[in-house]
Model the fold of this input.
Amino acid sequence: MFCIKPTLLVFMVFIACAYPQSPDGYNLWLGYDKVGKPKLLKEYKDLTNSIYFEDGGEVLKTAKKEMVTGMEKILGTTLNFTEASNTNNTFLIAKTATLETSLKEKMSDDLSEVGSEGFVLKSITHKGKKLFVLAANEDIGILYGVFRLLNLMQQHKDLSTISLVEYPKIDLRMLNHWDNLDRTVERGYAGFSLWNWHKLPEYLDQRYLDYARANASIGINAVSLTNVNANSLILTPMYLEKVSALATVFRPYGIKVYLTARFSAPMEIGGLETADPLDPKVQQWWNNKVNKIYSLIPDFGGFLVKANSEGQPGPQNYGRNHVDGANMMARALQPHNGLVIWRAFVYSEHDPEDRAKQAFSEFVPLDGLFRDNVLIQTKNGAIDFQPREPFHPMFGAMPNTPLMMEFQITQEYLGFSTHLVFLPKLYEEVLDSDTYSKGKGSTVAKVVDGSLDNNKISGMAGVSNIGNDLNWTGHPFAQANWYGFGRLAWDPYISAGTIADEWLRATYSNNPDFIEPVKNMMLNSREAVVNYMNPLGLHHIFDTGHHYGPGPWVHELSRPEWNPTYYHKADTKGIGFNRSNSGSNATGQYAPEVAKTFNDPNTCPEEYLLWFHHLPWDYTLKNGYSLWDGMALKYEEGVDQVEEMIETWNNAQPYITKEQYQEVHMLLKIQLKEAKWWRNACLLYFQTYSQKALPKEVEKSPKSLEYYQSLKFPFAPGIRPQWD
Done:
């Protein structure tokens, strides 16, 4: 078996670093532009006049290297380090254990609060002299502190009186890559996979290192490398050596590697006749496989599993349940402190129950039966990453099981990488939702961070939008969704406005004349997309398979819940899915306070109206319009909002480069064209049922409904491959 020696790996990474980086979006939010304000620049230089940086292992070396890279660009000068801490230092970077006693005592309360991953960043007076201190209990805290300091400097923050005590509120902060071994990416809109499996393990692309830097800079500490529609080959020796090479690159940045495990792997690559989780031979196969993985990757994180969902094999194939399957893997991983992340995205064509209810029905009765090292990964809503969904009713309903939030960063149902959609607004909306599971204030954020039910472990996952495009994410503003996910996984209580402000300053400009209008554009962008795609609670009316563009007319697919007509149920009487207590009673899965609000169309928030109710076309909305007129006006409003986004971006030209302006401008033009497509196609189709004229404010379609129904996109990006 071939294994890479550490010295060889370091050499290869060093050689890869010699390649120049492109400035065209490649550097993400880590461009580290020089500060142009003389007064602020002097303050920063005085702060870093004499620096002591504690020596240590590879994580501390990585932190010091990042500090040198960042600060020398920001300051335009070489940093001055001292070999030992002394009274002349202006900046001290050290772990708790090596702080001198008096300084340790002065900072003890803060350091006791930040745990193993947090840090303290303070400007203090010590022994009669002003001293800037970055301290942490562990090496990884220093790394996160360095990135946070550089981020504050990029934002031109005054550090003279700073007192920052930060630590992650969520333990496992994870990117889920839906990357296939042939380098295609399911629901990927930014090129091919980063992972060049053919060249690994010998060839280590510079991108692997820069990917790790970007993730560490926002606190992401875990990554699953491959598609949840898993391929068993990733668990074979040849591929495990490749995974080990990636893990070695990521380790200095505090990132653990996870793998998606196909439940039928014992049969497909192990030669067994069954994958029954209660079969001793199957259990032993997983034990042996886990031991082998840890011999190659000592800090391996564990398995992410999609089972008995959309054709994927699982324990139900053998008459077992999710507990049997998850706990079998958890027992194998537990001696190594590994985790099982078991996805709750399940629905069956054999179950006539409302699809929105099925995950709750399967998993909630199992609450408390999973082993301590199992997390149940639950999508933010009960259907599938729609532009807007009410929060998943499982949040708050399983107090004895850690629920790991699954958000989608890639824009499967949100215009792919050609639409500007700032997703932290969506994440914020979900996290701030009140489950009422333990009374008012029992927010989804408190469920996810474990504080509501005192869970031992917590997690948040984001389905990656990263590919090998030059700028990583296809759309420059899609970088903000990667950035924003990381910031909210670190602290689910940060506002979307704060995230947008940080990202714009680190990526584009600190000029307030640029920041304010563009930030407002970002904060309004998600609502614009909801308006021109799925207003008033409409959902899953996308064209089938690729989910590109509208397809509310699709009705002929073999499984009823794959058809958009299943979800909108438009007829001559009205439109919407009745999930109230007079319909499927999906509302009954929520706490009584929430169910009561959703059950009554008069109290149901109108953004969820057609999610929970089938209402007549002449139903009167709160603004006095009929449902038909109000829906049509929402579609028009979405188009108008995109036109406003274009105007905002045009006004931003003086503050950015020509190339930066032109790239986003062209993409906004695509977004406007497709927003009109959505408006026209949906209103023409629904008009066949309402038989009502459009309001005068709504632009008439230049094309017929038949034209829009005839459009086909066999090669739309990100299409799911066919699996066995």
About this structure: The two ends are 30 Å apart (CA to CA). The first helix runs from residue 6 to 17. Confidence is low (pLDDT under 50) at residues 1-23. Residues 531-577+614-710 form a domain with the Alpha-d-glucuronidase, C-terminal Domain fold (CATH 3.90.1330.10).
